[in-house]
């Protein structure tokens, strides 16, 4: 039988007991069969060890003892698992388990270990291994903490007592299932009597009514959480809560003054500012917004009110110009009200206020004022200097009623056609006017008061020049008429010219000049004589003009844009052709075969003898067709660099230097080129300038055929086939003659 000693630590006491474990159990199976279970030395659930033990000796956790242990030291106890050998050690002889280090339940609450009993000499297991748990017993060693602190909360001002503000929550790392180490209780240390906290939930609530934001806006509250149910000896933690009262519309607007005094000068124009006023509202945002309006007063039609969007002030402006001489003071009544009203505080109203504004009009030195906003006069052209045009009139509207002087600004009458009497405003001409040159004259007249600040005002004067019959009539367009040579008498041209005869000819006379007298119906009547040019032209049967003996049209100097573009395009094309030609010449490749300078095919040889004619075939030696460099069987190439030189094949015969068998010569060259890799490629140009001899046709040269006395017979060319038909036609017939169709003689 096994004995397990468990040491339970509670405070300073240790209880030691033992547990007897049976070897086996029996279980009745189906049909009464007895099932045997494997033997186990021990089975238990857990051990306990207190945390934060600070004694001088290791803590005894428990003791393992097997009933096969006779105490002679042959049994060896082994411990493995979490912390085995470092935190927990076992006496392999006695089976005592000790904790060698201070344990912290908040770091690790339990450890899983495995125990086994083996023979000391053979390490053979005497009992199967068994797993057990060592739990760390909690003590109150952790104070409460507020993980989300400090806190910030907002609550409306004037809230009722008990209004919820915020809930704070503290945590305790101790074991909540063991004792009261994690049982927390909340209390308020700072913030009374304005706020309170529920001990079990941590909910903060208002404790006083009518807390006014305008009196105090922020409150600092300290909340404490204490474990052990709040009893003495418990640990505690605190957090700060900043509570801000938010605004509500609980204050109506108020003007600081009941009466405001303002003034405005009579020379101010409409839209100019007169003054400002503002109602105060201690509320914030929309709750403190104030709207203004004019509700009464004798100046409600002369002034207007707007609101400055930035300063929220009421701005009084001129709606119409005021006149000191007409009315010297005005009264306005202004109302300021909140547009957003909280129904909860409606009984605290009314949320508006009124103020009175007294506006006085100040006298200003005003410029003179013309009776009319503008003037329009008429005067006949060619009127003598000093002719009266019209009178303008202005007056000083001030109380002093100072006299006024008139003048015409020179920039409005640069040529000085007019003058004005400085005292009475009469405008007169200074020189005759011409309607045909300028039918209207627009000038300005300035009126300045004498004395005061010499202020002036201007008025526009429009002067129309009336027409008189002072210009004789004349042709309005070019005085030229085109007429056909075949025109019939009585034909009307341009509706006023009649043709009296026929038979006009451009060759006889191509231009006629007709003087015409023109009269108008004016008073007095005016007349002039103009000359009409009649040009005779050639026409077709439909009297469509074909040509006239007109003067040639001379092109203006210079070229048009299209001509310039055409010239430039031609220049560009010519340049492109030149560049292309140069590029092609540069890209022309050299021949692939390198010949020395002695190669006669690249030299010009001059002979001074005339030769023997067509039958002279001995003047040219065919040996010149042979490449001097090919005598040794090697023809150098430019396209490849040969590694080996091939000798002339003995099987291929080479014609003698003096041989005239060109056919054999060419075949030999072709065979050499096909079999020799060092020879030029198949597409190289090979030039053979020998005509051959021994042909039945003889020489085809025409050097001797130019003579007419040649006795050669070329009729045999007719039998050579279609290839020689052209030659047969040229040389086969001799009887030919040419007639001159002009004079009938042979040429």
From TrEMBL:
It is found in: Cell junction, Adherens junction; Cell membrane. The keyword Glycoprotein applies. The chain crosses the membrane at residues 563-584. Its main location: other. Gene3D superfamilies: Cadherins, TCF3-CBD (Catenin binding domain). It is a single-pass type I membrane protein. This is Cadherin 11, type 2, OB-cadherin (osteoblast). It comes from Oreochromis niloticus.
